[in-house]
Every structure is written in C-alpha cells, then in structure tokens.
C-alpha cells in the first residue's frame, strides 16, 4: 500500500523494567515502514534505562524527572514528527499488524481524525483475562456515540490513535489531570470529530500486581464522572454517568477486581 502515513508512538515510562522490553518489542516487531518510536522515561531507578540503551538504534528516548504521565506524553508529542500519534504505556503491547491496519484506515479516509479498535486485557504473563469486561466494552463500541462517551468510557487507550492536526487544534494532554487524562482528551476530541471504530484487536492492556493504582481503588471511575460534568450541562447525562459509576464499582467489587488507572498518578510517582 502506498502513501502510508508516518506514525509516532510515544511510551511514557517510570520503573517498568519488568515489562517495558515486551512493550518495545511489540512496537518494533510491527514492521511498519514509517515508524517513529519515542520513549519518555521519568528517571527510572530500575533496569529501564539499561533496556533503553540496548534498543537505542531503533528508538528515540530520554530519561529525566518530569511532572507525571501527562507531562511525559506531552514531551513525546512535542518531539514527534508523525502524521498519526498514539501513546502506549510501558507495560502494554500492540497486537501484530496493528499499525498497518491503523495506517490503512487513516489513508483510505481523510475525514477520519481519530480512531480506536478493540483491546484485550492480559495478565503479567500475557495471558488474556477479564474477558467479560472486554466483551462488554466491545458491545459498547458497537453502539458508540458522543452522548455515550459522556456517560461511560468504552475507549481503550492503548488502541487509540489520532492525527497530528487534532493536536494542532485542541492542544496537548492536561498536565493537571493525573488519573483520567486519556478520557479527558477523548471528550475534547469527540466534541469535534466522530470516532472511527475498527473491529480489529489492536492492543493489549496489562493488569499486574505492581501496576500503579490510585489509593482510593476506584477513584478513576469517580474521576471520569467528575471530568464528564465539565463537558455537558445535561442533568440527564450527569445522572446517567453517576449511576453508571456506581454500577461499575459494584460490578468490579462483585468480581473481586481492583481498578487499574494510569501508571503514573502523581507528579512524584
């Protein structure tokens, strides 16, 4: 396929030496012909930097203290030169062929400004888990609307990509948002452009015991509710999102699952 866009993948990282090599390999093994891979490390004290040095000829990387995950992503976006941008956390992975599928969707339709695909949940060993949650999110994606996004978030961050023109228009991630920075960004993009949804699995979201979590446990779901209120004045949508928040927390507690928000939830993490 000709005229495929340049893709910039940004990986914010902090002390994920147990997983980041798998993340790196999943990106580099895509075999995508015009890939820019940027790792923005927050000054890791584990073996992350030694791993990055081994792959230094295949990616761009920096390691220095920053102000949290959003700030790290923004630094990577400012370094990026790609037409398409995404960020992949340092313990998540891409499915084989994901970037080619994404590039084809953007190349075939110039009106597509952002897109998402399906995303598996895997454990520390890479085995698929929480299939019921994945199936539920896939169902919601099949009925997606912006009104739905104001009530619940079925968009999996590792499987989401957007054009550079989106950044030029709406700006960067909110550095003051350390918990649901991706959801806040989706609401900003979705208020302007429809979401293109691919039926393919593009990425895997990893859950593991050492993942950074918010001390409140389910604080990310509560925070999504608070953030969504800034994007709509509809009492109905506020109410629906609140009850959705309660239902999600109840479901997770019933299943005995802990929530896993962004890896870096504070500026000193």
Structure description:
The chain has 269 residues and is α/β, with parallel strands linked by helices. The protein has one domain (7-255): Spore Coat Polysaccharide Biosynthesis Protein SpsA, Chain A. 38% of the residues lie in helices and 18% in strands. It contains ten helices and eight strands. Residues 259-269 have low confidence and may be disordered.
Any descriptors?
8-stranded mixed β-sheet, globular, Spore Coat Polysaccharide Biosynthesis Protein SpsA, Chain A, 10 helices, 38% helix, alpha/beta, 269 residues, 8 strands
Our count of helices gives 10
List low-confidence stretches.
259-269
Mean pLDDT: 92
**Fraction of residues in H or I helices:** 25-40%
In the sheet with the most strands, the strands line up as 3-2-1-4-7-6-8-5
> Could you say what the CATH architecture is?
Alpha-Beta Complex
Largest sheet: 8 strands, mixed
Distance between the termini: 43 Å
What is the general shape? globular
The strand count comes to 8
Order of SSEs = EHEHEHEEHEHHEHHEHH
**Quaternary arrangement of the chains shown?**
single chain
* Fourth-level CATH superfamily: Spore Coat Polysaccharide Biosynthesis Protein SpsA, Chain A
């Amino acid at each position: 396929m000709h005229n495929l866009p340049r893709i910039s993948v940004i990986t914010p990282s902090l002390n994920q030496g147990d997983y980041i090599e798998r993340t790196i390999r999943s990106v580099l093994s895509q075999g995508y012909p015009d890939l820019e891979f940027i790792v923005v490390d927050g000054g890791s004290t584990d073996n992350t930097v030694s791993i990055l040095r081994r792959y230094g000829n295949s990616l761009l990387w920096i390691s220095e203290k920053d102000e949290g995950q959003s700030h790290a992503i923004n630094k990577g976006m400012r370094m990026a030169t790609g037409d398409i941008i995404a960020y992949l956390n340092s313990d998540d992975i891409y499915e084989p062929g994901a970037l080619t599928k994404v590039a084809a969707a953007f190349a075939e339709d110039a009106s597509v400004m952002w897109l998402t695909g399906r995303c598996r949940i895997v454990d520390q060993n890479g085995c698929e888990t929480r299939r019921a949650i994945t199936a539920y999110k896939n169902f919601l994606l099949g009925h997606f609307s912006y009104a739905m996004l104001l009530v619940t978030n079925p968009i999996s961050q590792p499987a989401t990509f957007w054009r550079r023109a989106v950044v030029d228009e709406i700006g960067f991630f909110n550095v003051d948002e350390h918990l649901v920075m991706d959801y806040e960004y989706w609401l900003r993009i979705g208020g302007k452009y429809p979401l293109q949804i691919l039926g393919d699995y593009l990425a895997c979201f990893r859950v593991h015991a050492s993942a950074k979590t918010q001390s409140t446990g389910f604080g990310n779901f509560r925070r999504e509710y608070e953030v969504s209120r800034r994007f709509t004045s509809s009492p109905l949508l506020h109410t629906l999102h609140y009850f959705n928040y309660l239902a999600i927390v109840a479901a997770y507690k019933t299943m005995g699952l802990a929530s896993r928000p962004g890896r870096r939830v504070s500026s000193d993490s």
